């Protein structure tokens, strides 16, 4: 059972150290994902509520949120553009793509446009090394992106 557990933890039982499955964290993710989907971010108040629900410290909730790039403690844009920065993507020119998005959207990486339409981020693996440089716009994967395609990709999201 513990071998199948995603998050095993040691506890002292009967004076002995034993491994048990810590289900708290595996149950935590769907709850956080649900809040993220409904609100677009997870507020400090939400973190406290979730921590209370699971009987853990809010810092643990915060660490989960900051570990997973698809969870956020900040309100983001209507569309999230994620540029992969894995080695293959960097070698294929992903930084040129980042620079072009920054120029066209008039923001820096990690920021959201003033109209709240777009947030620009770097992300690790999106499973698209073979089509680098690749990006994700919301849940859509786009490969072989060139700086010349950036404006069109942005315009397509506005339609
Ligand atoms: S390692 Fe490059 S996209 Fe996954």
The level 1 CATH classification of the largest domain is Alpha Beta
Name the strands of the widest sheet in spatial order. 4-3-5-6
What is the end-to-end distance? 50 Å
Mean pLDDT: 89
Quick summary of this structure?
With 159 residues, the protein is of the alpha+beta class. The protein has helices at residues 23-39, 44-54, 58-67, 87-91, 94-105, 150-158, and strands at residues 8-13, 16-21, 79-84, 118-123, 135-137, 140-142. The relative contact order is 0.11.
Task: Describe the protein's architecture and organization.
It is a single chain. This protein is of the alpha+beta class and 159 residues long. It has two domains: 2-67, Arc Repressor Mutant, subunit A (Orthogonal Bundle); 79-158, Glutaredoxin (3-Layer(aba) Sandwich). The chain is built from six helices and six strands. The strands form two sheets. A four-stranded mixed β-sheet has the order 4-3-5-6, covered by helices on one side. Strands 1-2 form a two-stranded antiparallel ribbon. Strand 5 (135-137) and strand 6 (140-142) form a beta hairpin. It is elongated and about 65 Å long. Residues 84, 86, 88-89, 125-129 line the site of FE2/S2 (inorganic) cluster (FES).
Q: Features of this protein?
A:
159 residues, 40% helix, four-stranded mixed β-sheet, alpha+beta, Glutaredoxin, binds FE2/S2 (inorganic) cluster, 2 domains, Arc Repressor Mutant, subunit A, 6 helices
Q: What layout of secondary structure does this protein have?
A:
Blueprint: E1 8-13, E2 16-21, H1 23-39, H2 44-54, H3 58-67, E3 79-84, H4 87-91, H5 94-105, E4 118-123, E5 135-137, E6 140-142, H6 150-158
Parallel strand pairs: 3-4
Antiparallel strand pairs: 1-2, 3-5, 5-6
Helix pairs in contact: 2-3
FE2/S2 (inorganic) cluster (FES) is lined by residues 84, 86, 88-89, 125-129.
